[in-house]
From TrEMBL:
This is Aminoglycoside phosphotransferase domain-containing protein. It comes from the Bacteria. PANTHER family: AMINOGLYCOSIDE PHOSPHOTRANSFERASE-RELATED-RELATED (PTHR21310). Pfam families: APH. Residues 15-218 form the Aminoglycoside phosphotransferase domain.
Amino acid sequence: MTVGRCTHSLDIGDDVVVKRYTSWGRGEPQREWEALTLLAEHAPGLAPAPVEAALDAHPPMIVMSRLPGRVLRGQHATGEQVQAMAAALRRLHQIPIEVVEDVEPAPWGPAAAVAKTRAWARKQPDLGADPLVLEAFRAGVAWLASTAPDQLVTNPLPPVLGLADGNRANYLWDDHERRVRLIDWEDSGRSDRAFELGEVTEHISRIDGALDAEQLLDHIDLTPGEAERVLGFRRLIALGWFLQLGPDGPATAHNPVGTLERLGERVLHLLG
């Protein structure tokens, strides 16, 4: 849920992309290189292929294949594109458990999200005077004070490899092959499938364009228990972004006017 952080620069060639990291304190180059290498073996074609890396350089650098297509952020995702996103996620989450268990945990996950969202709520952010927004804040604070968020922290299901970032700019639509590929693996790691689905359905990038979250989830085979966990994470992620959208909030400057009110409606909808 990092806001306004520029972590890299890109040199885009005809066949390859050179990524140079401007910050790497959380091991971003190593995470991305490990993920790309693992994906090349277990899900080839789903992500850029690794070409070469200088992980100990200053700055660190990775060279990867260039993929065709355009990012889905800012787009009104069609039914075909939503189905292709689901297919990409299903393939990603089918990487063998024994492989995923050897991957480092992603830095952004359930425990971090619960702690950060509760911390934002405790700050009593200035969200203005809109009645709907204030109702959403009260409902969100009440939910955060319940035991429901704590129950999300422990994953009863096998882990998956995840992007740990629901930004739709990480989803690349290929018009020619009619498929979606995944890019930007610097925050990736071992993750919780329900959390990953909560991230992609409720990340604030959904404000740019449109994504039918229910349609996406309909294309993913979820057990009733997993569907309930996904709903819990959707509430958590949406609320986390909502709490950062007041006049002085760190997410406000990056989003169009009216985003706070739209997310207030979203929070109330998800909380039922």
